[in-house]
Amino acid sequence: MTGLLVTGIGVVAPTGVGVEEHWASLVRGEPAIRPVEGFDSGRYGVPLAGQVRDFVPADHVSPQLMVQTDRWTWMSLAAATLAAEDAGYTAPEDVYATSVFLASGSGGNEFSQHEIQGLWAKGPRSVGAYQSIAWFYAASTGQVSIRDGFKGPSGVVVSEGAGGLDSIGWARRVARRGTPAVLVGGTEAGLCPYAVLCQATGGRLSSAQRPEDAYLPFDRRADGHVVGEGGAILLLEEPGAAAARGATKVWGEVAGYAATHDAHHHEDPAPDAVQYARAIRLSLADAGVSPDEVDLVMADGAGVPELDRLELEALGAVFGGRTTPVPVTAPSSFTGRLMAGGSALDVATALLAMRDGIVPGTAFLTDPVEAPAGVDLVTAGRVRDLSTVVVLARGAGGFNSSLVLRRPAGGPTS
Amino acid sequence: MSTGRRRVVVTGIGVVAPGSMGREGFWDMITAGRTATRRITFFDPARFRSQVAAEVDFDGRRLGLTAQEVFRTDRFVQMAMVAADEAVADSGLAFGADGGPDPDRVGVTLGSAVGATMRLEQEYVSVSDTGRLWEVDPRYASRFLASALVPSCGATELAVRFGAHGPATVVSTGCTSGIDAVGYGAQLVEDGDADVVIAGASDAPISPISMACFDTIRATTDSNDDPEHASKPFDARRNGFVMGEGAAVLVLEELGRARARGAEVYCEVTGYANRCNAFHMTGLKPDGTEMAEAITVALGQGRTDPDEVGYVNAHGSGTKQNDRHETAAVKKSLGPAAGRVAMSSIKSMVGHSLGAIGAIEVAATALAVQRGVLPPTANYEVPDPECDLDYVPRTAREQKVDVAISVGSGFGGFQSAIVLAAPTRRES
């Protein structure tokens, strides 16, 4: 069976708004991690973040919707439109033929902080009519479905950073049961004071003042990650349905997927990488791909020494037998970690890499840790023909997800 | 569905519901037609429009949680853990022991609409100094806020608790989260990605911010002078839902596996579907078209004829528009059979616990199928011409049911339906 095809991509990311803008920034090797604008995040020990600076919500969202929704939903609405436009997709006659299946991590943070602030400072009557629909994790999915008239089976998954990949996993279940088109991925916007404070309490954020010292996956100097906002939404279509509507663009095929959980500790990862490696192996088996056939791995790249070590251990366990090591890169180092939006953005980046035969580098990786046999840590970007790419993501608490993407026969069309 | 489909059965149930203790306490309460709605005690509700709720007298420590578990987790996680403990014990599965399920083949799907909102709000009061500081003061934050921010902490806690290494996730589709979490759990088993899934939902939304946000849109009742009778689904006098809280967890298991170990089976999950109305975040069109579609698709998956449906466990929130919408959806999907079907809303007794209630209602439906007793709609007195089905008024009914459905409807436009069949049902 051929997997679902990716026929459209919409990106709203620190690296750019629009799929080509994002890609151009990565290819040029321009990190988008900078001092936080808007409030003093330094007091939370988090002076830097990947903010989306050139996003003008009014260009993408109607004034009525803007007042009813959080920044996170603005980004989802924009990315969903961009994905549909990229695919040339318009709502088909069958209203149930399109699903919206997004991941969320932290919901409508800034909107909610305002409303809770008002409630406790002034009383219940200061809470506005839209809090009930702006904050909860399903807000973006619901708003996209309503705006675009998509009535198919829809849902919202929360598995922290793994959510973007897991939304694709669920989309496959929906497609198997007869829905031909599913919007997947997600965005995140957790850069208001309270959400940043919450994330900082986890103890995994870098307190470095300069971007070149901050989020350094697989570097010996790694001491935590930088948070970011944004993400990506992708349109997945069943191949027959895509052909029937005359889809002109195919970015790639979702060839395999699997997820496992460490089930070890509520915060700490399992001391071995057994479950992480199992997720990768299961996804390869699902795709019918051997470790030798993988051309590139987009790593989770936690930027925390212990988590980086475990990721390399998992990769070594799966790819250690290769005669030529597999390139492993972590382009999230350019944007910061976008929680649910991050793994979705990595899928977009992997498809772009496949289209152009360019492996994006890992930002600021100058002193790499020792990689196990079978693994080649990519520092600077390089040219390479890519047919099969594995995208990995982990969620805090022990979620491990792995996705296998394959270039369509004859290469990506556009 | 193909005939080769892996079939999914329910082999364990755990419940944390208002006004009762555990699964059996819950069942006794709802079949007695007793209501658990009362004036809010968690905080002083005097300044709120709606001042009633169905609260759980919940003490995690007394129910087996450790001091550290209670310290680090929100109430929604604690209630999920207690419900899951009961469900797993009920299933007889020996997780982590010889003869227990392969940990790699055990999944977790936990529904929640608002996650750790209670803890996030409580800590916000401190770090913002009662809403005074926008740039909140980090010195008053607990170190567990990072997990509170993202509700997947609930799925993690359950996975760790039972050593479940299969796929785990939180499902958060607002007020259909509970049905959707059980439905997705069933899909994991059907698709061969797990043999056992710990599936359920939990929510603890009785806090000032949640009450305030439903106050402003008048979704909740203002029958503050008579809390016990405040939730009046399908009654002409209904005037909004009563907030609730709680959790329910089901152990879902592949049929062959359950049979092989001689497990007691409550029921089979024969169908699940959801649809969106793509209409309005909170509003519902009176025709119920998309919910009807979800019901029809879910029945079709199990090749079930509408005539076979003996019981509809309603969403029945008690808002004007929901109960009308839902009545229309059942008529549209079941056709003439709707005139004969029994339909009731347990929200009349345990309130509306947002994402949790879907799982609590699936649990009630599974118990109804197993025991041949239909819980009533409490407080139903005055018929509404627009709601003209058999709502099992006030008193439980003894009635054997081969096929039952549970439906849900939520903000965002989500409409879900799940079909449960007695293990003894003869397939035509």
TrEMBL record, chain A:
Gene3D superfamilies: 3.40.47.10. Keywords: Acyltransferase, Transferase. Pfam families: ketoacyl-synt (PF00109), Ketoacyl-synt_C (PF02801). It comes from the Bacteria. Belongs to the thiolase-like superfamily. Beta-ketoacyl-ACP synthases family. It comes from Geodermatophilus nigrescens. GO terms for biological process: fatty acid biosynthetic process. Residues 1-407 form the Ketosynthase family 3 (KS3) domain. SUPFAM superfamilies: Thiolase-like. This is Minimal PKS chain-length factor (CLF/KS beta). GO terms for molecular function: 3-oxoacyl-[acyl-carrier-protein] synthase activity. InterPro entries: Beta-ketoacyl_synthase, Ketoacyl_synth_C, Ketoacyl_synth_N, PKS_Beta-ketoAc_synthase_dom, Thiolase-like.
Automatic annotation (TrEMBL), chain B:
One of its GO terms (biological process) is fatty acid elongation. GO terms for cellular component: cytosol. It holds the Pfam family ketoacyl-synt. InterPro entries: Beta-ketoacyl_synthase, Ketoacyl_synth_AS, Ketoacyl_synth_C, Ketoacyl_synth_N, PKS_Beta-ketoAc_synthase_dom, Thiolase-like. Keywords: Acyltransferase, Transferase. It comes from the Bacteria. GO terms for molecular function: 3-oxoacyl-[acyl-carrier-protein] synthase activity. Residues 5-422 form the Ketosynthase family 3 (KS3) domain. Belongs to the thiolase-like superfamily. Beta-ketoacyl-ACP synthases family. This is Minimal PKS ketosynthase (KS/KS alpha). It comes from Geodermatophilus nigrescens.
